[in-house]
């Protein structure tokens, strides 16, 4: 009988540890060997020895951390390629979260476990769509694991932004987005909806937009927000401006023409969050699976056991138990419920 994954996959202070392979998945501390699911900073940490990931994730790590901190050595693995690591067969499957994001598929002595990292099930022009992998144990996030979280069609949310632009042509619309993934996805969705004018971006978003384009993701014309003298006329009326969420409440935004403060996040489903942040136009656009998608994914992978990480673990475990699936909370620490930290606002 194949060994149960809990005999060879366990939680340590550093993170999720594959014992026979002697590597960690998304460790929160520097370790000798790490497999990284994607480039968000709560999953991709600096200072590891050997790092394995998709070529896009490795490029993102180098761009964000610098060559010297993104791993002493890096090895790229394409989707569907297999690598033997101390007798464990490791492969990567698309996770659909951000560019290069991957699920880690591990097989050892006839037993298969899949660590999904962060994932979404909606179509995204900027990254490869999630692919379910049948397994014995599935490790899932639970960021939006409550029934209240059912994300609307992204096309409807983009239409809200374009309608507001038509209604208030004298105002700039500044949308709070995270630097990695959300920013580029929103740009691509706007292009798909027919917005072919330049989109203005905060300086903290420039580098990763450039990297996406270098990696083959077209974003169309992007321009920096112009510098203006103090006391000068307000700028960019009728234009779309993307910025880190933390930039919207800083003096940086005062140069814009009567800005309509917008935000693109799954958390905009919670009205209190939007109100507390002073968001005038909340857009429910998430890079994580919603409640129904989490349950559907767990059914698709056919795992009799699901391990749940960072998020609403109890609700998901209970719902899975009603479907005859055993759930287990991993209680991993160091992972954010947001997509990632906001980019610094000093770079204008």
Automatic annotation (TrEMBL):
Tell me which UniProt keywords the record has, alphabetically. Exonuclease, Hydrolase, Ligase, Nuclease
> Which superkingdom is the protein from?
Bacteria
An example of a GO molecular function for this protein is: exonuclease activity
The enzyme's main class, written as a single word, is hydrolase
Q: Establish whether keyword Hydrolase is in the entry.
A: yes
The EC number(s) given in the record are 3.1.-.-
PANTHER family recorded for this chain? BLL1145 PROTEIN, CLEAVAGE AND POLYADENYLATION SPECIFICITY FACTOR FAMILY MEMBER
Please identify the protein, giving its name as recorded: Ligase-associated DNA damage response exonuclease
- The record lists the organism as Plastoroseomonas arctica
Q: What is the lineage of its organism?
A: Bacteria, Pseudomonadati, Pseudomonadota, Alphaproteobacteria, Acetobacterales
